[in-house]
Amino acid sequence: MIGTAVIAMPAWAQQQSDPAAAEATTNGDQIVVTATRTTRSSVELGAAEIQKVLPGANPVKAIQTLPGVQFETADPWGNNEQNIALFVHGFNQNQLGFTLDGVPLGDQSYGNYNGLSPQRAVISENVARVRLTAGAADLGTASASNLGGGIETYSSDPTATMGVRFAQTLGSYDASRSFLRIDSGEVEGLGGTNSGYLSVVRQKARAWEFNARQGGWQGNAKFVHKGENGTLTGYFNISDKVEPNQDSVSHNAGGLEPYYRSLLYPNWQAALAYVDANGAPPANNPNNYMNYFGDAQRTDYLGYIKYERRFGDAVTWANQVYYHHDEGQGQITGPIAAAGLPGLFRIYYPGQNLKQVFGGSGYALRTTEYGIDRKGAISTLAIRAGDHEIELGGWYEHNRNTIFRRWYAAPIDNPPSPYEWADPAQRRLTQYAAITKYDLIQTHIQDRWHVTPAVTLEAGFKSSLQFADGRVPTQPLPGALPGTSTGYPEGRLNTKKWFLPAIGAIWDISANDQLFGHVQKNVRQFQASVAAGLSPFAVGSQQAFDQIKANTSPETSWTYEAGLRSRHALDLGPLTGIEAQISAYHVDFDNRLLQISATPVIASVIGGVSILQNVGRVRTNGVDAAATLRFGPHLSVYNALSYNSSKYRDNYVSGTTTIATAGKYVPNTARWLNKTVVSINDGPFEIQAIGDYVGPRYATYTNDQGIGGRYLLNLQAGYSLPPIDGFGVRDLKLSVNVTNVTNRKGIYELVVGAAAKTWNSYAQPPRMGFITLSGAF
């Protein structure tokens, strides 16, 4: 059960040396999995529970039931990346650390430059577990962005026996997800055992807000060789996805404010009729006009090889190399006489008929064309010496990312498609082209000292060094970016944080109760790309970049947390057990970076130039409390209540204006969260109800705008079918999932970008239903 997985307790006295190891116990047909031996607030969710949320769900979406996690997305699987919003203890997804089997996945920027999302890195059905450290990630986590916690996803290993697994999901809005996995089973050879699997998934669904398909396909392959003294693992993933996206709704910016912004695709004739003779949308809709389409196209190749060598019982040395290549486009086909575009186009085509230049339709196709080449290595040496467990590790990554902003014609007789890359023959201009490289080095050392059988102390530190270099082979023409921009900067920017300490302790009060505490300092290295929102390389002049080098510091945080874990069997009538965890935390977040727009409204279509500066501090205090009550083997009730108070401590200056943010709450972060999971199982039947409450949130930095709280209810029911004699089919299961059961309407997700008055939002997805048949043979 999800509630079980959230707060189940380890057996304190018999721990493995790996602090992220997992212990599994059975309780009827329930699997209890939890991180062990950690001084941090750390919880895990297993494969079965992830698939109960919705077969094929993004593993990050699945953890939305965990304490302190606020997650929103526009689709039921959590796959649409433009609309994803994740907050943990006041930090957003760009300030957390993400890994797959230890491989860094970057900071999850939608402006793709240093990684990929977990759902693009591994097929959901091949996920073994997800581990959340809500306060501060482990020292050895390969991330340069984790001011806050870490989200570690682990792929499942091949099975010991040969077999095939399959799943087929059908549902609302023509949704279809087809999954297949073939396992080789263990085969003797090469001085040990060998096993592997090949897996593929194909998913597609019509977006609920418009008539376009979202989805793609993905393949995984994994090989494991187990020898007498070591284990060799190889993994490869390919992901190809296309996601037409809706735009967010602007509020208080003037003109119409629809419930959601739709797209005109695929009705080209309606699109032609929508704009006037100059390519302008209706005058009463200057900010929430409809585009023909917008989309994200991403193709990723990710692979690693890892060898873990055991030198007796006391020493283990693991080495891992990885490579990631990404190529893709973000596209918008919209009116040529909106969002300040006529001013841009006249710089490149002075005195010409812009409508004719771009194909006579009144539309143009804008692309942001991405390229990533990352390669890296991770090495960890673990030594057990008496009462001490010593760990030394290092991580190196080299990344070359390219960003091209280009504009293409949208011919009146041959409109572009959201499922294809832009046609090079229709290219009209390259607004800019940027290449940014960085070398990243992180090292860490820590000692876990078992002072007594009941008390463990942990201390260590990491160093984080980044050496970045940005070049712009094609600069925008003068005036081609808003404000007073003179072009994107070039140069080197090196940041070095040599001492980022961590200290923690565990006290086993009893066999079933444990106190823990932890203090840690972290840094978020500068984003190194023109595509990234808080990047020094995305400012509007060389002078601004040089000032950043001289006067601006990367963001840092101190995290303090302490808590109690407990698990007890009870004999109180129907109540037979309780598992609980409560933790309190305090965060001092310093050198907060803010992108201050050079114009009143950030020019997201033309391309934003901005000022980047430190704007002060944030202080966060919070409490997470969660408990699972067991009523015999067939019923459990889980509830998690979280309180978070994240407040700015300083005002900041934009131009000559002081923005009064001191004492204001961080926008988009709810102070109250509550999650409830009721799970019932009886023989082949299981039913699960998931309730998710997110409290009121502010929508601007000065807190003059906000939205109320919301409560969503999701249901899941499953029935295990008997084997089919004569066909060898087993583990057959039929499951039904219903999201947003009450069909709640309203604002679901906020987009914060202004100090006051204006803000953006996405609408709540409607009720949807899905049915899945899964099995094996």
UniProtKB/TrEMBL annotation:
Major location category of this protein: membrane
Key word Membrane present: yes
GO MF annotations in UniProt: siderophore uptake transmembrane transporter activity
Superkingdom of this protein's organism: Bacteria
Segments crossing the lipid bilayer: none
Cellular localization per UniProt: Cell outer membrane
Name of a matching Pfam family: Plug
Swiss-Prot/TrEMBL keywords: Cell outer membrane, Ion transport, Iron, Iron transport, Membrane, Receptor, Signal, Transmembrane, Transmembrane beta strand, Transport
Bilayer topology: Multi-pass membrane protein
Domain TonB-dependent receptor plug residues, every copy: 38-146
GO CC terms: cell outer membrane
Family, as annotated: Belongs to the TonB-dependent receptor family.
Protein name per UniProt: Outer membrane cobalamin receptor
